[in-house]
Each structure stands twice: as C-alpha cells, then as structure tokens.
Amino acid sequence: MAKNTIMVSAERVPKHIAIIMDGNGRWAKSHLRPRAYGHKKGVDRMIGLMERAFDRGVDYITVYALSTENLKRPQKELDALFELIRTRFLDCMRKVCARGVRLNIIGERDLLPADVQEILEKAEAETRGFEGKGINVALAYGSRAEIVRAANLAVEKGEKLTEESLSALLYTGGQPDPDLIIRTGKEVRLSNFLLWQAAYAELYFSDKMFPEFSDADLDDAIAYFSSKTRRFGKTDEQLENNE
Ligand code: IPE
Ligand code: IPE
Ligand code: MG
Fold first, then answer.
1. Which residues are catalytic?
2. Which residues sit with their C-beta closer than 6 Å to ligand 1?
3. Domains of the chain: total
C-alpha cells in the first residue's frame, strides 16, 4: 500500500433506528394546508425512509406514529389519522415488508377503533413468518405505560425482575435496543418514547419537519451515528484493548 494512502473505514450502520416523526402539523400549516395533509405526507415520507434504511443495512426500524397522549387531540384530527390507517396502511406495509420484514404494532392497541385494530392485525399476520428484520409501529404508545405493563406481567407470574427479564417483557422484547434515535421537528425531547430502550442510544435531532426529512437527511443521521464512539461507560483505552 502506498505510504500516504488514507484508510477510510466503512461507515457503521445502526442495527436499530427509532424515529420520532414530529412536525407534520407545522409543516402543513406552513404550506397553508390542513394538518391531515401533513400526516398524509408524513406517511409517504416514512415509507421512503424505511426503504432507504433497509437498503443501508438497518435491521430494525421503530416509528413513533401516535402517542397515548396524542389520543387527547381533537377528534377530527384523530379521525383523519385513523382514516389514513384504513386507506393506506396495508398497502404501505406490504410494500416495505415484502423484503422479509416482520411487522409489530406496539402500544395499547385496544384504545384504537375496532376496525383499525383488525387492519393492523391483518398486516402483522401477513409478516408472521419473517425473522431478523423488523418494523415496530408505535400507535397509542407510551413508554411509561409499556414499562408498567411489563412490570405487572412479572408480578402476575410472581417473578422478581432483572434488567434482562424486564427488557424481554417490553413490546420490543427479543430485539436489539435502538442504536440511533432520530427526532424531527425541532424539539429536543423524547416525549415518552422508548425510555428504557434508549439507555445508550445516540440521539439525533433535526430542525426539519418530518415531511421534509429526506433520504439524504437519513444518511446524515447515520453518518453522525457512525462518527460516535460508543463507550458504554468504558474508557477509550479499554476500547482500544478490546477490554
Ligand atoms: C407528529 O406530527 C405526528 C403525530 C403526533 C401524529 P405532529 O402532528 O405532532 O406535528 P406538529 O408537531 O404539530 O407540527
Ligand atoms: C411525539 O410528538 C409523538 C409522535 C411523534 C407520535 P408530539 O408532537 O406528540 O410531542 P410533544 O407533545 O411536542 O412533546
Ligand atoms: Mg408534534
């Protein structure tokens, strides 16, 4: 090798990316359109980003699509969101999951309309045979509620919890924790998303509203992740010595 050759190490791609898709409403407002239009654009963008992420070698994607707290929004907005699930969800998920991706809906799904629950179950059932790659769509999801639910499952079984057993009882049980959490929409907070699983995630906040967060922006977020040294509490020297 020539003496001055610069070795550029391959970019490290996160195994699991979680995305807080925020800013649909503000994006719509800035385009003088109703909030529902922003959500429609947000769904389209989400599908594009999922395809990009899987193309880049990501194995798991978790999307925060509706929080438990969002259920307090005006009924008109909720109806528009549920209508998007009725009209678009199956087709969109079939498109992305065709590459062997398992779909998992996380959250308190019984808080959603019955016909919406049926659609979600149908979409999940179609991917049941797949393993190794996954999409979690968080709907009526709250992280504290998820942790309490897991703790209660342990109590019912009379089990004392460990970190491992609690992790296994979460909706994301069996999956790697998110390595990278991206939030669009200018806010720097987690809003009750994956609080337990985020313990060592890299956090990436974008000022862009979700409908305008491009594939190139996702690449930037992955490059940011790749530039980080993940020490998990250790020193750089320990990492260098593989300790
Ligand atoms: C995120 O966008 C999607 C949902 C919460 C359903 P918002 O609807 O929160 O958009 P902003 O934050 O009001 O712009
Ligand atoms: C977080 O966004 C939830 C989702 C993106 C689904 P919010 O818009 O609900 O968050 P806050 O209320 O600004 O914290
Ligand atoms: Mg918001």
1. 22, 70
2. 21-26, 66, 70, 185
3. 1
